[in-house]
């Protein structure tokens, strides 16, 4: 026996957890509704379900959520065991499709949203329906770990009866969903907004299952379409070579997604989600084909505007659950310290490539200068074989100057004329020849902060004239010198 082991005979008092106190604590694990639903869907996948039907029903205080699957179901004994908090040891090895780890998800995910959980199941083995549930008020009142056996939903029982097998998880008294933080009941509109968040979450988290058609998820009878965060099927998506680590247990692969201009507005908004593109950049951690973390730089980088097209897939094997600190909610993965250097190196490269999309787009935009409403700052024309340079009086900044010039209008005009007449053309040409730097299209060194300031002034002016936000940004691409700074235009967006 090693020194670390206790002798057999030192056992003292038993201090079992207080049911009333601990069950309330289960509610505070930090799920939100989408992650709680996903945890229930994990169990359906593990039970071999091909379909999961999720129904949200709004009826004020009597609102409910039902999650039904056509998996293998549970026998009575299995059902009772399934409701036990901590029904299996987290150290135990799991089957290939079993997304579980802690033996807690069904309970903790449910309690995070509701006060009553009922599980109704029909096992493939026995073909009999059984039901059991937890009621938090009962546990707290009686201070005992006792489940209940009750189900009066004839319709649900009938539906399940028609299936060969399956399981239904019913949440009622969904206080955490229907009351806001001020304990006021939410509006139906808000309720359905929350349901939309659930749809978006599931569409991303389980996209691989939906894509390979091993699972169909129905939300209030409408099938959820997968959202692949990497858009691998889009011709403008850049896919980079993958790298593997830890004897193949971790794989990472970078993607740079197409610029908004290359996407239909539908795809653009679906893939940006409700949080938008900047929020969705980052690492996407997969475990057993299910996404744990969707769009997070995991503390390695910041979410910058100019890197918002960068997304990196990280695939981790479930044997690494503990070193990557998988949590009960399956919404977290923290790379081991040693691994961070790989993420930093690979990630920096992909982020650089993502930034280049904007620069490249700048070049493309420049070619658009053939557009006849492009506003140059200078107009170059020929007069008796000599090039003359005039400041474009139609340029938005020049126009603004005239509008506000009032009694100094004449002086303003004189000043512009002065600049035009005294422009040191010969010395500019000489410089160009000597340095060979200002070849056509290249720009003199300008502080980006200056450009941003000017850009904002023009943007404000366009907005003041009634131009929409999107149109104003698009116009900036056709105004000198902003067309050379597409990444700065994107920052305003
Ligand atoms: N829809 C279902 N169909 C069949 N069995 C289920 C279903 N949901 C839960 N179970 C059974 O209940 C057990 C407990 O589920 P629970 O989610 O609490 O823990 P887990 O999935 O084992 O681990 P984790 O805490 O990581 O989710 C599962 O292991 C499974 O045997
Ligand atoms: Mg589970």
Structure description:
Strand 3 (116-122) and strand 4 form a beta hairpin. Helix 16 (448-464) packs across helix 17. The protein has a 7-stranded mixed β-sheet, with helices on both faces. Strands 8, 9, 10, 11, 12 and 13 form a 6-stranded mixed β-sheet that branches. The chain is built from 18 helices and 15 strands. The protein has helices at 19-25, 33-46, 76-82, 105-111, 136-142, 154-162, 175-178, 188-205, 207-211, 265-272, 277-280, 337-367, 396-405, 409-422, 425-435, 448-464, 469-476, 486-492, and strands at residues 51-57, 64-69, 116-122, 129-135, 166-172, 216-219, 222-223, 238-239, 243-245, 250-256, 282-287, 290-296, 310-316, 378-383, 386-391. The longest helix is centred in the last third of the chain and has 31 residues, at 337-367. The radius of gyration is 31 Å and the shape is elongated. It has 3 domains: 19-223, Heat Shock Protein 90 (2-Layer Sandwich), CATH 3.30.565; 238-368, 2-Layer Sandwich (Ribosomal Protein S5, domain 2), CATH 3.30.230; 371-492, no CATH class. The protein is of the alpha+beta class. 38% of the residues lie in helices and 17% in strands. Mean pLDDT is 89; it is low at 436-443. The structure holds adenosine-5'-triphosphate (ATP) and magnesium ion (MG). The site of magnesium ion has 6 residues, from helix 2 and helix 4.
What's this entry about, in short?
With 493 residues, the protein is α+β, with helices and mostly antiparallel strands. The protein is 38% helix and 17% strand. The protein contains 18 helices and 15 strands.
